[in-house]
TrEMBL record:
<dbReference type="InterPro" id="IPR016024">
    <property type="entry name" value="ARM-type_fold"/>
</dbReference>
<feature type="domain" description="GAE">
    <location>
        <begin position="644"/>
        <end position="757"/>
    </location>
</feature>
<protein>
    <recommendedName>
        <fullName>AP-1 complex subunit gamma</fullName>
    </recommendedName>
</protein>
<dbReference type="InterPro" id="IPR011989">
    <property type="entry name" value="ARM-like"/>
</dbReference>
<dbReference type="GO" id="GO:0006886">
    <property type="term" value="P:intracellular protein transport"/>
</dbReference>
<dbReference type="Pfam" id="PF01602">
    <property type="entry name" value="Adaptin_N"/>
</dbReference>
<keyword id="KW-0968">Cytoplasmic vesicle</keyword>
<keyword id="KW-0813">Transport</keyword>
<dbReference type="InterPro" id="IPR008152">
    <property type="entry name" value="Clathrin_a/b/g-adaptin_app_Ig"/>
</dbReference>
<dbReference type="InterPro" id="IPR002553">
    <property type="entry name" value="Clathrin/coatomer_adapt-like_N"/>
</dbReference>
<keyword id="KW-0472">Membrane</keyword>
<comment type="similarity">
    <text>Belongs to the adaptor complexes large subunit family.</text>
</comment>
<dbReference type="InterPro" id="IPR008153">
    <property type="entry name" value="GAE_dom"/>
</dbReference>
<dbReference type="InterPro" id="IPR017107">
    <property type="entry name" value="AP1_complex_gsu"/>
</dbReference>
<keyword id="KW-0653">Protein transport</keyword>
<dbReference type="InterPro" id="IPR013041">
    <property type="entry name" value="Clathrin_app_Ig-like_sf"/>
</dbReference>
<feature type="region of interest" description="Disordered">
    <location>
        <begin position="529"/>
        <end position="576"/>
    </location>
</feature>
Length: 762
C-alpha cells in the first residue's frame, strides 16, 4: 500500500486525502464543518467517490439540522449530474424535503426534484403525485403576509416561486390531469403578482412559460399572451426583447391571441435597439394572414424604406414571400413587389428579381399596367436600384408595344411614352458606369426585343447594338456581335426569335412543393419546351458551402481521402471556389463523362442552328444565347426526362429538424439520380444559418445546387437539389452534415444515409 501510494501522482494523493477528510468531516458535530465537507464532495468528487459516499449524503438529507439538510440536498444534486444511476438512492429523502418549513431546504429540494425529472422519465412519473403539494406551497407564498426574511421588493420569496413554477411546467407537460390541477394557481399568480418591479416580471415570465407549455385552458393562454403584450410596453428593453422572443414561439400555438397585440408589435419596429427590431420583424411576418395582409404590408413597406441595410435583404424577401401567399389580387401583388424593388434598392436578393419576373409573365391581364408602372420607376434615378432596372427592362422588352400603343391603364397616364423617350433612357442605362454588367445584359437584350415592338426607330436600336460589338467586356461584346446579325444576315428570323415569351411556369413545380420560406424560389427554374418537355435553366442564387467543412465530410473509410465532387455553378456573389480547389488539392473537380458512357443525345429544335440554351445560361438575360465557345457550334436545346418518383426516405431526424430525400432517376441518363432534399422545422423555435452538406464515395460524382433558403421558421421548409452520377451502378451511400443556429445556440451534427432504395442505382 505504501509503495503504491508513493507511485501515485500528486493529484491522486490530494483526492484520496480529501476523501478521507470528507468522510471524517461528514460525521463532525459542527454543522459548518459538515457543510464544507458536503460542498467539497459535490464539487470535486469523482464518480467512484460519489458512489462510495452517496449513502452518507442520503443519511445527512434526513438530519434534524436544516442547514445540513440543505447542503446535503445540494451535494446530491451534483452527484446525480455526475452519476445519474444514483438517483434512486435519494428518492425517499427528496420527497420529504417538500414538507419543510425552511425556505432554504425547500428551494434545494425543488431544485433536486427538477434535475431528477429532467433526466429520468420514470422519476418524472413518480413525482407527478406531488403536484398538489407544489400548488399548496405556491398558494401559501402568494397569500402570505409580509415576511422580512423572504421579502424581495414586496414579493414573498420570488426565487422559490420561480423554481416551483419551473417544476410545475415540467410535471404538467403533455399531462392533462396535472395541467388541470395547476390551472387555478397559475391564474392566481398571473393576476396577483405586482409588475412594477423586476422581481414581479420574473415571476410573470415563468408563469407565462408554464401556461404555454402545459395543457392549459384557452382563457389562460389568452391571459399569458396579454401579459407578454404588457411587457412590450415596458421601458426596459430587455423585458421587451424577452416578450418578443416568447411571442415568436407562442404565435404558432395561439395566433389569434397574439394578433390582438399586432399594433404594439409593429411599434417595436421603430425601437432604437437593433435586436428588438429584428425580433419584431420576424414576429410581424409570422402574424401576416389573408385578413391583415394589406395593413401589415403597408407598415412593413414603410419599415423597409427606412430600415438599416442589414435588414433590407431579409425584409424584402419575406415581404415577397408573404405577398405570394396572401395577395388579394394580382394588381396588388405587382404593386407590392414594385414597392419592394424601389425601397430595398440593391439589397434585393436575386430570388426577388426572378420571382417578380415570373409573376409579371403569368399575370397576362396586367402586362400593360405593370409595364407603365415600371417605366415611370425607370425614368427616375435608378443607380442604387439594379434589381429594379433588371425587372423593368425585361418587362418593357417583352411588353413595350403595350406601353407605347396600348390603351391607357391608369388615371394619370395622360402623357404618352414615345419610342425616342425609351431609347434615351436605355442609352443612359447602357452608358452608365454605375450599372453592373448583368444589368446591361438585361438592358441590351430588352433593347433588341424592342426592335420588333417599335413601329419605327429600328435603325437607332441597330446603331446602339453595333457599338457593343467592340465592347471591352467579353459578355457584352458577344451579345453585341450576335444581336447585330439579327439586323443583317438573319433579318428574316428576328421577329420569330424575339417574339413575346409564353407565361412562365412556377419553378416550384419541379420539386412538387408549394411552400418556401422567406420568399426564395427554387434553385432550378423550368421552361416548358415543345410537347410539354421540361427544360432546366440555371439556378438563381445561393452560396458555396464552406470548403473546409466539405473536406471534413469527404474524409471517411470509404472516401479514401478523395471524392469526385462537382462544385455548384458560378453565381453572381463572390465565392470560395479557389479555397476549395486549394483544399482538395489534385482532385478532379470537373464533371467529366464516365468512361464508356456517351452524353445524353439532344433533341433538335427549330432554331436554324443559330443559338442554344444550355444549363449554364441565364434564360432571363440571355434567352437566346449560349456561351461564347458554343454559340457557333451548338444547334440544340437540351431536354431532360425524369422517371416517376422513387420512395421518399428520411435521412435525418433529430431535435425538431427532419430531412427527407425525394429521389428521381433521369431517364436519358440512367446513371444519374436527382435527389431533392427537404428540411422541415418541426420545433417551435426558428432555425437560422441552416447549412446542409453532403459527400459520397470517390466512385460517385456529386453536384449540389444552391438551397432555397437558410432560415426555417416553425413548420418552415428549405429545399436543395442534389445530382449524383453513379457510372458503376454501385449501392448509393452518403454522409451528410447539418449545421444551424437555434435559440442562440449553434448546432452541428452529421449522419450516414445507407437506406437508399435499390431502384435509385440499379
Amino acid at each position: 500500500m505504501d509503495g503504491n501510494y508513493i507511485l501515485m501522482t500528486r493529484r491522486e494523493k490530494v483526492c484520496i486525502n480529501i476523501c478521507y477528510l470528507d468522510f471524517s468531516d461528514l460525521n463532525s458535530s459542527t454543522q459548518f464543518v459538515v457543510g464544507l465537507a458536503l460542498c467539497t464532495l459535490g464539487a470535486i468528487a469523482s464518480p467512484e467517490m460519489s458512489r462510495d459516499l452517496a449513502s452518507e449524503v442520503e443519511r445527512l438529507m434526513k438530519s434534524p439540522n436544516a442547514y445540513i439538510r440543505k447542503k446535503a440536498a445540494l451535494c446530491a444534486f451534483r452527484i446525480i449530474r455526475k452519476v445519474p444511476e444514483l438517483m434512486e438512492i435519494f428518492l425517499p429523502a427528496t420527497r420529504s424535503l417538500l414538507s419543510e418549513k425552511n425556505h432554504g431546504v425547500l428551494i434545494t429540494g425543488v431544485t433536486l426534484i427538477t434535475e431528477m425529472c429532467e433526466n429520468s422519465p420514470d422519476t418524472l412519473l413518480h413525482f407527478k403525485k406531488i403536484v398538489p403539494n407544489l400548488v399548496r406551497i405556491l398558494k401559501n407564498l402568494i397569500l402570505a403576509g409580509y415576511s422580512p426574511e423572504h421579502d424581495v421588493s414586496g414579493v414573498s420569496d420570488p426565487f422559490l416561486q420561480v423554481k416551483i413554477l419551473r417544476l410545475l411546467r415540467i410535471l404538467g407537460r403533455n399531462d392533462p390531469d396535472a395541467s388541470e390541477a395547476m390551472n387555478d394557481i397559475l391564474a392566481q399568480v398571473a393576476t396577483n403578482t405586482e409588475t412594477s418591479k423586476n422581481v414581479g416580471n420574473t415571476i410573470l415570465y415563468e408563469t407565462v412559460l408554464s401556461i404555454m407549455d402545459i395543457k392549459s385552458e384557452s382563457g389562460l393562454r389568452v391571459l399569458a399572451v396579454n401579459i407578454l403584450g404588457r411587457f412590450l410596453l415596458n421601458n426596459d428593453k430587455n423585458i421587451r426583447y424577452v416578450a418578443l422572443n416568447t411571442l415568436l414561439k407562442t404565435v404558432y400555438i395561439d395566433t389569434s391571441a397574439v394578433q390582438r397585440h399586432r399594433s404594439t408589435i409593429l411599434e417595436c419596429l421603430k425601437d432604437p435597439d437593433v435586436s428588438i427590431r429584428r425580433r419584431a420583424l420576424e414576429l410581424s411576418f409570422a402574424l401576416v394572414n389573408t385578413n391583415n395582409i394589406r395593413t401589415m404590408m403597408k407598415e412593413l413597406l414603410v419599415f423597409l424604406e427606412k430600415a438599416d441595410p442589414e435588414f433590407k435583404a431579409q425584409c424584402s424577401s419575406s415581404i415577397v414571400n408573404s405577398a405570394e401567399r396572401f395577395a388579394p389580387n394580382k394588381r396588388w401583388h405587382l404593386d407590392t413587389l414594385l414597392r419592394v424593388l424601389v425601397a430595398a434598392g440593391n439589397y434585393v436578393r436575386d430570388d426577388v428579381v426572378s420571382c417578380t419576373i415570373q409573376l409579371i409573365s403569368e399575370s397576362t391581364s396586367q402586362h400593360g399596367y405593370i409595364a407603365e408602372q415600371l417605366w415611370r420607376a425607370l425614368e427616375k434615378d435608378t443607380l442604387d436600384r439594379q434589381p429594379l432596372i433588371q425587372v423593368a427592362t425585361w418587362c418593357i422588352g417583352e411588353f413595350g408595344d403595350l406601353l407605347l400603343y396600348g390603351a391607357p391603364v391608369s388615371e394619370d397616364s395622360s402623357v404618352r411614352v414615345t419610342e425616342d423617350d425609351i431609347i434615351v433612357v436605355y442609352q443612359r442605362l447602357l452608358w452608365s458606369t454605375q450599372n453592373t454588367v448583368v444589368t446591361k445584359q438585361y438592358t441590351l437584350l430588352s433593347l433588341t426585343k424592342l426592335s420588333t415592338r417599335f413601329q419605327s426607330g429600328t435603325e437607332k436600336i441597330r446603331q446602339i447594338i453595333d457599338l457593343f460589338g467592340s465592347h471591352l467586356h467579353i459578355e457584352l461584346q458577344q451579345r453585341g456581335v450576335e444581336f447585330s446579325q439579327l439586323f443583317r444576315k438573319y433579318e428574316h428570323l428576328r421577329p420569330a426569335l424575339l417574339e413575346r415569351m409564353p407565361p412562365m411556369e412556377s419553378g416550384r413545380q419541379i420539386n412538387g412543393t408549394s411552400d418556401l420560406t422567406n420568399g426564395e424560389t427554387e434553385d432550378v427554374e423550368p421552361i416548358m419546351g415543345e410537347e410539354g418537355n421540361l427544360l432546366i435553366g440555371e439556378r438563381k442564387s445561393g452560396e458555396t458551402p464552406d470548403s473546409s467543412a466539405l473536406l471534413d465530410l469527404l474524409e471517411g473509410p470509404d472516401a479514401g481521402g478523395k471524392s469526385d465532387v462537382r462544385p455548384p455553378e458560378p453565381i453572381k456573389q463572390p465565392t470560395t471556389n479557389i479555397d476549395l480547389l486549394d483544399l482538395l488539392g489534385g482532385l478532379d473537380l470537373g464533371s467529366p463523362t464516365p468512361e464508356g458512357q456517351n452524353p445524353p443525345p439532344p433533341l433538335p429544335v427549330q432554331n436554324n442552328g443559330l443559338f442554344n440554351i444550355n444549363q449554364s445560361s441565364n434564360f432571363l438575360v440571355d434567352g437566346l444565347l449560349g456561351s461564347p465557345s458554343e454559340v457557333t457550334n451548338s444547334k440544340y436545346f437540351h431536354f431532360y426526362y425524369f422517371s416517376p418518383a422513387l420512395p421518399r426516405i428520411t435521412a435525418y431526424e433529430k431535435n425538431g429538424l427532419k430531412i427527407t430525400f425525394s429521389l428521381e432517376r433521369q431517364q436519358d441518363n440512367s446513371s444519374t439520380t436527382i435527389i431533392t432534399m427537404s428540411a422541415v422545422n418541426d420545433s417551435l423555435s426558428p432555425i437560422s444559418e441552416f447549412l446542409f452538406q453532403a459527400a459520397v464515395p470517390k466512385t460517385f460524382q456529386l453536384q449540389m445546387l444552391s438551397p432555397s433558403g437558410t432560415v426555417l421558421s416553425p413548420a418552415g421548409l428549405v429545399t436543395q437539389v442534389l445530382k449524383i452520377t453513379n457510372p458503376n451502378k454501385a449501392p448509393l451511400r452518403m454522409r451528410i452534415r447539418v449545421s444551424y443556429s437555434v435559440d442562440g445556440l449553434t448546432v452541428q451534427d452529421q449522419a450516414e444515409v445507407n437506406n437508399f432504395p435499390a431502384e435509385s442505382w440499379q
